[in-house]
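Handout, section B. The chain below has 366 residues.
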Amino acid sequence: MAAPSPATDPTPAQSKAPDPSNQDASGPPAAVPAEAGEAQDTPIEVDSIQFDSDKDSAFGDDMSSFTASLESSVVNYPYENGRRYHAFREGAYNLPNDEKENDRLDIVHHMVTLRLDGKLHLAPIGKNPQRVLDIGTGTGIWAIEMGDEYPSAEVFGNDLSPVQPNMVPPNVKFEIDDVESEWTYPAPFDYIHCRYMAVSIADWPALVRRCYENLKPGGWVEFHDFTFLYYSEDGSMTPDMPMAKWDRDGLDASAKIGRDGCPGPKIEGWVRDQGFVDVYHQRLKMPLGRWPKDELLKAIGTWNLLQTLEGLEAFSFALYTRVLGWSHDEVQVLMAKVRKDLRNPNIHAQYDMHVVYARRPETDAV
């Protein structure tokens, strides 16, 4: 969910990442400080070719016992507005956990990986990490691919819902847990990965602290998160558009329940305040639609549009009905208008993804 802004372009820092392929496990490489990089100021160029949003399939129809010890309360899912939600710590997470949402999350994984040039991570973790944790693993797709890429590692993924597959690499394990409760892992990790937790976390500094406490000295943490604040660089999206209203009201609703929809630019500060070093921060633009001229950004924008259309109900129903007091029918009417805006190739909306990684020092400051 996101709120609109005028045609302005926020400019957090960007820096060149060390190449993980050049690293080994002998010692931590020096990351480029975040402030040393250039801001990503260049506007995304709009493709002059127009698309028929009514005929283009990319804008069209919807996409079509994880452990024996699970208590029945974990899988006794509540249903609301025709969607299924998690049962463990019910209400802590406002998006569904049904098959439609899981399909959308896999699209997000593909979109984010594409934006990172096919990489699962940017932190220079070496070639043989031993213990890896994926916070809020969702469908588990990142953890599974990480387990395949690093057979040396034990990869753990936690989530509120047991929606991960049973057939996984032998070095991958999933568990039901609430990352905002105290962690009880018996051994620290070499690398902790946290992605797409916007509108999900009540206390970000506490989450960063737990990451620090559960890393080995010299271990790395990496965040991929968003500023769900839509903007256009050419004025094609205006605050009075239904898409903009939906976006703004959704962010407001999330803020009312203490869940930040725009944590991305703040993560660097939380990481530095905790005592991490070798901090790297990059902002990446995420176009919404097929309008970019650049072929890679066009592909990313197409996937982003698809996951947004697929997720419109997921983003809307819980926040609008539970928090804002809208009726089911009122939300349906708004979503119809939002879909029309989203499919309009003349609206060049985008938002930002932030990548932050950092290292726990070998010796903690006194």
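Note. The helical segments are 72-75, 99-115, 141-149, 204-213, 242-256, 267-274, 295-323, 328-342. Compare this with the example in section A.
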